[in-house]
Sequence to fold (593 residues):
Amino acid sequence: MNLINWRFDLEYMVDSFSLRIDVDVDCKVLAVFGPSGAGKSTLMELICGLKKPRQGLIKIGEKVFFDSEKKINIPARERHIGWVPQDASLFPHLSVRDNICYGANRGTAGPFIDHVIDVLNLGHTVNRFPPSLSGGEKQRVALARALASSPGILLLDEPLGSLDIPLRYKIFPYLLKVKDTFQIPVLYVSHDPNEVMTIADFVFTLVHGKLVNQGNPAELLAGLRGLSLDGKDTPINTFKVERKELRPEEGIEKVATEGGLVLSIPLNPIRADISGFVTVGAHDIILARAVPGDISAPNILRGTIRHFDYLGVYSYIRVITESMDEIVVRTTKAYAGELKLTEGEQVYLIVGAEHCHWLTTLPPKDPFV
Amino acid sequence: MNYMEILDIVIRTFQVAITGVLVIAGPGIFLGYLLARWNFRGKSLVETLVALPMVLPPVAVGLLLLFLFSRNRPFGDFLTEKLGWQIVYTWVAAAIAAAVVSFPLLVRACQQAFSDVPQRLEQVAESLGSGRVRRFFTVSFPLARQGVIYGLLLAFCRALGEFGATTMIAGNIPGKTQTLALGIYSSVINNRDREAFVLMIISVVIAFAAMYFSEGYVKKAVKK
Fold:
């Protein structure tokens, strides 16, 4: 797939919210990153043609969708954009097959639709109706429906946002597979830095409707790893690691960060890469004052408490390890209070190997196997 | 009143109510959709005008219709002289009265039904290349269908019992414009209590069956 030019120079206002963006970038997968309420979904709707900017330009590749100076405003139905909303928005009265075929060209799309269904592993669902589908299946059907309309661009609006974390791990490889198989330029909206770092080759960050920075995802979002911006989800700690040692007899492998933090994680025999990202949920880490003895978790990391954040019933404790890696731990407020933890205090983090996961960069043939 | 006359009243009541509902079905559904989906200047005025027959005394509605369709007025004169349609004091007039008083109920029910359809689904359909008409028939209407049918049944029930406006524009002519409601009234003022009672029982059975069916339909739809 060739690089495509994304050009947004627009201004949109409604009530007290305003969105101003000026982006001009060449890339294949562009990500929009930002917290809830930043204007990410509004931007999607502007690009789709469901909302109209007050003024500006929306141009993707050679196609001008909106140009206030030249008075161009292509109707949404003529933009050929495959839009996947966060909640999937499947037509509940149509079967999965009818949903997928809704925007397809009736005469020529048959074999292509079968291909889409095959790629997204939806063959067993085609005669079912949306209310009977799981969250992950709904997202894949929404993706298939968008793809079946043979779009010029794919807009994925937080496609994993409504799924819980284990399901995200299952569905994300499909997104990567779609990206590689269909060779369609993708605009990917997310508030999860891990997703953005894995799928996109350029990212811009929106906060309160304003563009705050843009650049390479790994560089731009490295400082945000482990942080969930809207506090709705459990933060995920992400480590860029290299594989150091395989121990098949023990069922584990050892990986290390650049700083030297070594983690034992479950052996992944089908994975060929020696480097990548490993994730650990903030809720999967136990925090202790003293070195625990005789426990099954192989990863006991010493660190210093740097900062506390409180959100709802949880406290988020940022710990700097001896390798200078920052790790976010989630506990209940009550627990943090009972231990009377303070900033600057030395603590131990206990991480079970089974809670460490490779962030998949190459989709397996069937992630459900 | 013999059985044939009672049967004649029942058939005419159904004829009037069904015709009235069929006449308003298209405009009522369309207006309900417009009010649910479009914000335009004067929307409140349109909503108020639509609701008016529901809150006005039915005889006042009947009087307005009489003014409109009377041969002494331009529109009525036009219908009679140019098209040869004599409306006033016919069963057609009764159907028009039934249609007018039922219209607000149908529009309100349809407006609610279309409002309950997530607009996001219509937007997705649009992004998939679907035009306005296709969106309506493939997404909006199928999803609002149950609410629309409920509205039609409600309008039918209201049309069955229409009295005030009907007497004004259609009169109460036995064998010609007399419906169940008018028949009960005639029987009572002529001291034919037994007849009135029989017609009242028939009215109750029909109204109960229609409402039972529509409420049951809604419950079934909610369960789905």
Summary: The mean pLDDT of chain B is 90.
